[in-house]
Amino acid sequence: MSILTLFVVIPVLMLFGLWLARNIEQVRGVMVAGSSCLLALSAWLTIDFISQRAAGNEAEMLYTFSTVWFAPLHISYAVGVDGISVVMLLLSSIIVFTGTFASWKLQPLTKEFFMWFTLLSTGVYGFFISIDLFTMFMFYEVALIPMYLLIGFWGSGRKEYAAMKLTLMLMGGSALIIIGLVGIYFFSGAQTMNLLEIAHQTGGAHAIPVAVQKVLFPFVFIGFGVLGALFPFHTWSPIGHGCAPTSVSMLHAGVLMKLGGYGCFRIAMFLLPEAAQQLAWVFLILTTISVVYGAFSACVQTDLKFINAYSSVSHCGLVLFALLMMTKTACTGAILQMLSHGLMTALFFALIGMIYGRTHTRDIRQLGGLMKIMPFLSVGYVIAGLANLGLPGFSGFIAEMTIFVGSFENNDTFHRCCTIIACTSIVVTAVYILRTVGFILFEKVKKPEYEKLTDATWDERFTVCCLIFCVAALGSFPLWASNVIDGGVAAVLSNIIG
Prior knowledge:
The chain is mainly alpha-helical. The chain has 21 helices and two strands. Strands 1-2 form a two-stranded antiparallel sheet. Strand 1 and strand 2 form a beta hairpin. Helix 3 packs antiparallel against helix 4 (110-129). The relative contact order is 0.10. This is NADH-quinone oxidoreductase subunit M.
């Protein structure tokens, strides 16, 4: 049994512990203990992975394990990780851990909320460790389904509409994915669902006729792209984030949307390489639109969550944009962008939730003077904003620079024009970040009752400090993450472009 199975076993034990819990203190204890174990496990896995690579272990996947589930269709519980998976597990653990403290005072039905929250995280962990197509899809669905209740019951605003729209669009994407996966399985010989075996065996991915690949690739790429906020299938994202409770927004934008980019790279491009090369230009146009459109849309929003949601459309579009450039530097930048955006957007949504909990509004036109009233949260918001617009020293700078440098390595006019257009989003991002900071922090106080508001409590300070530390650490010391990611990116790209 692989150590990776603990990433599924621990959340299942957390669910059992939550079910047995009889009061809110026990619920909190289970969540803190479980999320701490997951964070420690992911940290140990990262360190051990680095040490094994340094010792010369060049296997494509480490910690592999496989056992047959359903022999007639060659379905197995197969797990393994490379550098990409390892950093995604670390990101997920950080968000689950900080999300627990961000929901410390959540009411009502705290126990039930954390049970659904834990089930969602189970799907996320399972997806990142799986290398069997059926198992990946199963965990993918486990991660999506709880969103309906988490938003529909514990959300705010038009929560029922948001939950329904999000669920229908993501289920529509899932339908496209399953069509693509079944097609890959049968046209690759129907002998295995292990994605590594499909990619490398005789009669595998490269033996799928190019004409068939060109049919299957849009199904898989668009299916995962819906979750990755690919234009024009992004419309669920702003309303979903806007109505979700704080920790759900953190996990959703910080981790769940990364399943989209991960699936596009690990499945669509890896298993359908010829189609990826021939059709990349179509999706490159769409992702370029996502990057610029998301940034401009954020400029005209007045709701703090919608500003961050459209910012996420732009930044997640940048992930897909970089992957489609198919250079090692750009793809490494895409994974760094997943890490960076996951941490930054979790920090943003945590701070927005804390501000909303006190002022009961997210409208920037009704907020003002918060720097004087709640300085800790205000400084945290400024740091998050500077990281988001790419200030050197924070994670956003290194991720975006890696993407743009790698994208410009393509020396044809089309790719370089797309790169230049995408670069304009940096300026637009600065506009909406500085505009928002000016509105809510430095203008005069709009309502007298705001003068009596309190600053962050201990649990909120702990959440914010953890995320700021991670954003600054990744921005100041990015080389370790880049080195971990490089091997996984190189292995996928070697199958795509040879």
